[in-house]
Write the structure tokens for this entry.
Amino acid sequence: MSTIYSSIIFKNITVPSTLVLEESVLNELKNIVRKEYPLEICGVLAGKIVGEKAFVKEYRILENILESSSRFWFDEREWMRIICEFKDKGLDYIGLFHSHPNGSALPSLADRHRMMECPGEIWLIIAYAPEKGFDICAWVISDYISSFSKVIIVTV
């Protein structure tokens, strides 16, 4: 278990080791990934963090400004605006999700670099290829000196 103290997003919270997703939310995300294939999609996850569990209640799609099938990025102002909207609704920022068309659900090198910018963010990666189906994993970097670790995904 790790605690984060220095982020504009997280303030003295335990880094979750479990991501709890409603089956309906996961199915919606899979449908979006399938529909947008072969482009990478990305978005924000929000909900409640209770102890070592992050319960996803809502998500919001971010525009992939790279319009790429192998990379994604978004407007940071839009990302922060969405996080603030979730905060105003009483929801915690959990992290990001994005797809890996024709890839694996492991974080790419670019993903790992970005994860280090905001330790504690959970990254849900949804790998998809029509001939292979889905592979879904979640990852987190707990602090600025740790390697990334897998987050348990529980669907309810």
The chain has a mean pLDDT of 88. The longest helix spans residues 23-36. The beta strands are 3-4, 13-14, 18-21, 42-50, 53-62, 92-101, 122-129, 133-141, 148-155.
